[in-house]
Specification:
alpha+beta, two-stranded antiparallel sheet, about 40% helix, 9 strands, 9 helices
């Protein structure tokens, strides 16, 4: 992206909050948030994130800052969240490098579980306002009518293209999740391979801290056990890989889940996959998550007692 194509507000924001204007664009991405990798006039490389101000960002950035201070492998926020019109904006250090860890060897889910357990242990010591509403792909706790949270850009499309088994799986998983009544904790709700980078066997960076959520630990771990294998388009890990992830997670955390918590973990893995499969059907010409969900739904529902 040429400098001249940056949003009008961004150079002045950098000058006000970082002390200099951008002189180069390293990268630009836009999904849920707008993310700009910038080189400032003084030679410093930074990342600026801008997203719709739904009240979540301040808590997410504050938690990220606490973990970075403690040495957790994540980018250190350089500013608090500020307003730029209707956007919530902050900057963080640029933390490039590392490789995506994919593959289906038996140790891969264990390595991801080790990172997730460390992350959850660190977040247990962080006190911030709950970052609500939760991200839509884990927002099974919504109060909207119907099985899905109300999201205009999805709801306005032709719902008849969504396979019936996707909605049925989501409904059954959500019913089980809502019945549990477990206490909520702070956790990472988009723990996908594409959001982590590794140097050999050591994790180098965990990204996407805007995706923190306030849900039961078992639900957060269960969602991660299903989503960790997503190195590209979201998918659902094999059942055996999710089981290995959950076993390793409990072992590292030093606490075994109760029977109810294990059911909630399996239900949460299904909800996230069903959400992604619905979005695939509405927007994409791929069926990566839908195919995995179709193959695994019955077994995961059995394990969830749903």
């Amino acid at each position: 992206m040429p400098l001249g194509d940056l949003p009008d507000w961004l150079p002045a924001w950098c000058l006000d909050h970082l002390g200099s204007e951008p002189v180069g664009v390293l990268f630009q991405q836009q999904q849920v948030s707008m993310v700009f990798g910038l080189r400032l006039a003084g030679g410093t490389d930074v990342v600026v994130k801008a997203r719709a101000d739904d009240g979540r960002a301040a808590s997410c950035v504050a938690a990220q800052a606490r973990l970075a201070e403690r040495g957790f492998p994540c980018a250190r926020p350089l500013t608090p969240v500020t307003q730029a019109g209707s956007l919530a904006v902050n900057a963080e250090e640029f933390r490039p490098g590392g490789e995506v860890l994919d593959g289906d060897s038996p140790d891969v889910p264990v390595r991801y579980a080790q990172v997730f357990a460390r992350l959850m242990a660190e977040l247990a010591g962080v006190t911030v306002a709950p970052p609500l509403p939760n991200p839509p792909w884990v927002r099974w706790d919504h109060t909207d009518s119907g099985v899905w949270p109300a999201i205009d850009f999805l709801d306005n499309r032709d719902q008849s293209v969504v396979p019936a088994y996707v909605a049925d799986t989501a409904e059954r998983a959500r019913r089980r999740l809502l019945a549990a009544g477990l206490p909520c904790v702070l956790g990472h709700a988009d723990f996908e391979a594409q959001n982590l980078r590794w140097h050999g066997r050591e994790v180098w960076a965990v990204h996407d801290w805007d995706s923190l959520a306030w849900q039961p630990e078992a639900a957060l771990a269960g969602a991660a056990s299903g989503s960790f294998a997503s190195a590209g388009p979201p998918t659902l890990a094999p059942v055996a890989s999710s089981e290995a992830f959950l076993v390793a997670y409990q072992d590292i955390r030093g606490r075994m889940f109760t029977a109810v918590e294990l059911e909630i973990a399996w239900a949460a893995s299904l909800w996230m996959a069903a959400y992604n499969a619905r979005e695939e059907a509405l927007y994409a010409d791929i069926t990566v998550c839908a195919d995995a969900l179709r193959a695994q739904a019955a077994e995961r529902l059995r394990r969830a007692s749903a």
